[in-house]
Specification:
By secondary structure, the protein is an alpha/beta fold. About 35% of the residues lie in helices and about 15% in strands. About 45% of the residues are buried. Mean pLDDT is about 90; it is low at about 1-10.
Length: about 280
């Protein structure tokens, strides 16, 4: 298969790994990776994320056990966050993008930002060590090994331009006060910018934790049933978009009809919502 040259941040000499040594929340990074790979290999791909498919082929892991964990909705989530990120970059090509809790996310490959943009993928040191098997720092791209809740990592990020902070399937693993503190740090560090992330309601949180039970040490912690609780986390934040995962215009017609029916059930309607804020 032929295609365009490697996008920013990619490493064409990536080598296979023998195994993944991850614990807690870090273990969950393979779930969206595999969902994106399956989406790429499907008849109606939402993301067209070839890089994720290539990563799955290079990792020695029993991905088949994850086949039912998330499905196309994880691709929908990534697609919407990609679109918001592209919109920010289109208006602010000299800005800063923070991909929080990046795991093995391939967003930089999909978005392909211009060389004028500074992009930081942030995650635990062990995850970044794993990530360096597939990506390399260079140009405006840099990987930072730190928990997003650590107070010091932001000091190494320039704050002379607007910022776009993206958290894809990350904040639900934090407590509400940790999320509040993170938002405060971002709005204090930067004069203006955007935040884009997903939230789950209490039913989705309980369902997710039941699914994780016995498979992972990770636990989902932050449930959002009323978006006004998110609005109140930081007075500088103004919500500009709230997009439900069900149904999504990015889904193939058959699945869109199926999820449109599910959307009629109140607790399913707010299962996962994608939010965008400005400050």
């Amino acid at each position: 298969m032929t295609g365009p040259p490697p996008p920013p941040g990619s490493d064409p000499e990536a080598r296979p790994l023998r195994r993944l040594r991850l614990r807690g929340e870090q273990e969950t990074l393979v779930i969206p990776l595999y969902a994106r790979a399956l989406d790429y290999r499907s008849k109606h791909s939402i993301l067209k994320d070839r890089k994720s498919s290539e990563l799955v082929d290079q990792i020695d892991f029993d991905f088949e056990k994850l086949r039912s964990a998330g499905g196309p909705l994880l691709a929908v989530r990534a697609r919407q966050l990609d679109e918001w990120t592209r919109g920010f970059i289109g208006r602010t090509p000299n800005g800063v993008v923070l991909n929080l809790g990046c795991g093995l996310d391939t967003r930089i490959s999909r978005v392909a930002p211009p060389p004028t943009l500074r992009w930081y993928d942030v995650d635990f040191p062990g995850v970044i060590e794993l990530r360096r098997n597939f990506f390399s720092d260079g140009g405006g791209y840099r990987m930072l090994g730190a928990s997003v809740t650590d107070p010091g990592w932001l000091d190494s990020v320039p704050n002379d331009q607007p910022v776009m902070a993206v958290a894809d399937g990350v904040l639900e693993y934090l407590g509400e006060e940790e999320v509040r503190t993170l938002f405060h740090r971002l709005t204090k560090r930067f004069s203006h910018g955007r935040l884009a992330f997903d939230v789950m309601n209490s039913w989705a949180l309980a369902t997710g934790n039941a699914h994780l039970q016995g498979r992972s040490e990770a636990r989902l912690r932050w449930a959002v049933d009323d978006l006004r609780t998110v609005d109140a986390l930081d007075p500088r934040l103004r919500r500009t978009a709230a997009v439900p995962m069900l149904p999504s215009r990015y889904l193939p017609l058959g699945k869109r009809v199926l999820f449109a029916v599910a959307y009629l059930v109140p607790r399913l309607r707010t299962t996962v919502r994608l939010l965008c804020y400005e400050f």
